[in-house]
Specification:
The complex is a heterodimer. Chain A is mainly beta. Chain A contains no helices and eleven strands. In chain A, strand 4 and strand 5 form a beta hairpin. The termini of chain A are far apart. In chain A, about 35% of the residues are buried. The model of chain A has no long low-confidence stretch (mean pLDDT about 90). Chain B is about 0% helix and about 50% strand. In chain B, the strands form two sheets. In chain B, strands 2, 4, 5, 6, 9, 10 and 11 form a seven-stranded mixed beta sheet that branches. Chain B has a four-stranded antiparallel beta sheet with strand order 1-3-8-7, with no helix packed on it. The radius of gyration of chain B is 13 Å and the shape is globular. The chains are: A mainly beta, B mainly beta.
Chain lengths: ~110, ~120
């Protein structure tokens, strides 16, 4: 079946690293994405990774993909208050262009 | 340029009434997606369009829900005989090329629907 799972909440101290985890079910996924949703706003693409890659780094963001375990993670280095948001993991299936989203992880930053 | 525009931004309706939600995608984007976000829930896929056709309608919750797209541009999501469980934020997104991972979804700010 189609399922993308994430933990609902994460709290980190300002300046620490945040790691948001995601598991998915479709082994034929082609692309996996991380989106960010700030309060009252739509979703914005943060980064994506192609399924034949293990890692992608973009400034403070590092995406790790374990295809064997169908596990995706997003690491945010030096977390700032502006990083407070809901982070969604999403996958695109190879058999179709449907993109399925997880439930989102709410990241809160404490001083 | 302009992003994805959705209207209205907020809609309050009485149970049993019909509602129409509108999405104006980014000009030239061929793919258009509708999602529903309920309070505390993730994004629930509803339907997507490639041009004016909808290859996948599997996410529409019931036959009270329908969507169309005309001229490869504007899309309308219609909910007939609304129920309280239809209350949610309805998000529209568009993409320049279907099936291309590096053509991300661009989301609108959504329509918040409240059924009383």
């Amino acid at each position: 079946g189609e399922d993308v799972e994430q933990s609902l909440f994460l709290s980190v101290r300002e300046g620490d690293s945040s790691v948001i985890n995601c598991t998915y079910t479709d082994s034929s996924s082609t692309y996996l994405y991380w989106y960010k949703q700030e309060p009252g706003a739509g979703l914005q693409l943060l980064t994506y990774i192609f399924s034949n890659m293990d890692m992608k780094q973009d400034q403070r963001l590092t995406v790790l993909l374990n295809k064997k375990d169908k596990h995706l993670s997003l690491r945010i280095a030096d977390t700032q208050t502006g990083d407070s948001a809901i982070y969604f993991c999403a996958e695109r299936y190879s058999s179709a262009s449907k993109i399925i989203f997880g439930s989102g992880t709410r990241l809160s930053i404490r001083p | 340029g302009a992003g994805v525009s959705q209207s209205p931004s907020n809609k309050v309706t009485e149970k049993g009434k019909d509602v129409e939600l509108r999405c104006d995608p980014i000009s030239g984007h061929t793919a258009l997606y509708w999602y529903r976000q309920s309070l505390g829930q993730g994004l629930e896929f509803l339907i997507y369009f490639q041009g004016n056709s909808a290859p996948d309608k599997s996410g529409l919750p019931s036959d009270r829900f329908s969507a169309e797209r005309t001229g490869g541009s504007v899309s309308t999501l219609t909910i007939q005989r609304t129920q309280q469980e239809d209350s949610a934020v309805y998000l529209c997104a568009s993409s320049s090329r279907l099936g291309q991972g590096n053509s991300p979804l661009h989301f609108g700010n959504g329509t918040r629907l409240t059924v009383t």
